[in-house]
Specification:
heterodimer, A: alpha+beta, 3-stranded antiparallel sheet, B: 406 residues, mainly alpha, disordered N terminus, disordered C terminus
Chain lengths: 216, 406
Amino acid sequence: MTSPPPPPPPAVNVPTRPDAFPGTGRPSRRWLPTGLVALVMSVTVLGGFVVAGTLPVPDVQAVAMGGVVTIHPLPGWEVAHREQVSLPSVSGGFLSGEFAQLTRGNGALDLLVLPEVGGEALALADLYAGEVLGHQLERLSVTDRIEQILLRNGLEAVRFGYIGSEPQSGSSVEGSVTVGVSPAGNGVIFDGWAFQGQLELIVEELTSMTDGAEVA
Amino acid sequence: MMRRRAFAHSPLHHAGFIQLRLPAFWLYVVVVAITGIVAVGEQNLFREISPGGWLLSWGLVIVYAAPVAMLVYFLDLYEREPIPLLIAAFVWGAVAATTLSTIGNAGWGVVVARIGGPEFAARWTAALTAPFVEETLKGLGVVLIVLIARDEVDDVMDGFVYGALCGLGFAVVEDVFYFVAVFGGDVGGVFEGFFVRVIASGLYSHVLYTGLVGMAVGTFITRRDGRPRLERLGPAALLAGAAVLGHFLWNSPILEFFPAHPWEGAEWFLIPLATAVKGLPLLLFVVLAIRLAHARERRWLRAELMREVEQDAVTPAELSILERPGERRRSRRAIRDRAGDRASDVLGRLQREQINLAMVRSRVASENDPALLRQRALCRSLRDALEAIPGAGSAGLVSRPAPADR
């Protein structure tokens, strides 16, 4: 005789979820607020450039340095600083020259002219990286690849990039240095730099001013 | 055996992230796609500059970001936000807001330089541009999330969660930038950057700023505030203003006690103090704002569900448990011990649906709205199902009110 089967466990009917509520409908497309978001975004991102364009720009004359180089600053660029400088040479002496800094707020172009320095552009580039950038910036990294270029004015030059940080503020600086030595032996260094990834935004203007410089 | 997660989705979560018919979705996609190209290019550059440092940087920021993201997620006590939308907020902050901010900061930086001159610009550009540009662009990410999934953003805390995650995305990418580009990208530099930007400053960063901006958005669009929108504009502006002010103070030369680099000896201990001077007031403000938002949510839940007690959709005992997330967890543990996993799962679902009931109540105009009646019926039937499980109905956790109380 077999025993009766055990009673089934009590049924637990978990109710199913109701469908989406009636009347919920499809949401409206909300074109107007989306358009407003796009507008605010555009104004925030590009508005500064538009407003800056309406502000008076100091009229900057061509900048001539030591009879060696004349540069034509683009609108918005102004001379912030000029001075006579000297820097140690590889041979142990000192090289005298003239320094000028052009700026447009979010970036700068440093110009260094070394009359009758002679030698190769590559050696001058090494000197600038070691004796100037190496002392001005911390954690300096210079690109391995050095580009050989021909400027619009016919000057053969070398170009390298760098990244480092300012010792006082800790701000990151990135730059592009163009170095040339004219047939007359005059050395000229263009160092275009900017803070925090903003070099890209001014690189065209830097290139234009550098390439358009007149070098004796 | 894996336990089934049968009831993970709330019926109120019917708006996902992918909304092909909404222009806001496409605006989000287009902006993230375009800025993503730039962002990937930048990361590639960092990887080329310092492959090891770049990897280490990402490892460290993930160690920091993962618990912060969890904390933000769990700060939302009653209705956790859908993961895809949270990821969307994070990605907006990490990709779109960072890239667009670089351009925006540069443009407005020129304006500052033209008006104030180069020397003024060198000291004040970061304070006068980034707080306005960055908070606007990150806040627009929260607004886009609202436009894409309006039903998911109900109140102030929801806004905080989306805003904080957007800010976290921004902070993570900015930190990697700083570790590699500012602190040198070698192992020592990355750890130094981690100390300065995360250990000493991590509590006061973009998570707070954009959390407040998100709260401002939540305050403005909330469904749980009877006041007209115009009256909510003031509190919303106050929250957004606090975010901008905190960011401004952080970037400005005011109260600058940061020791000059390179740091040696006791100067390392000065760094957290210097960051606390600027950041601690805002942190305290945010903590207060979150506590007020939690209290406001609790009041809202109680007010909505008190009216459901007489409908038998919620019992007074259940309501007192629902109000406190810790009690909810304890009640589920207790019922699991008494009646097993199944009972705990059903109780968990009952609690979720009762909270959803409060949300449905706040969205319908009439006591007889079919949606409300249906949700009520669902709650009652879930309780019936729970009581049918042997051992689950005791200890008053799901006890029905006496007829006289109904």
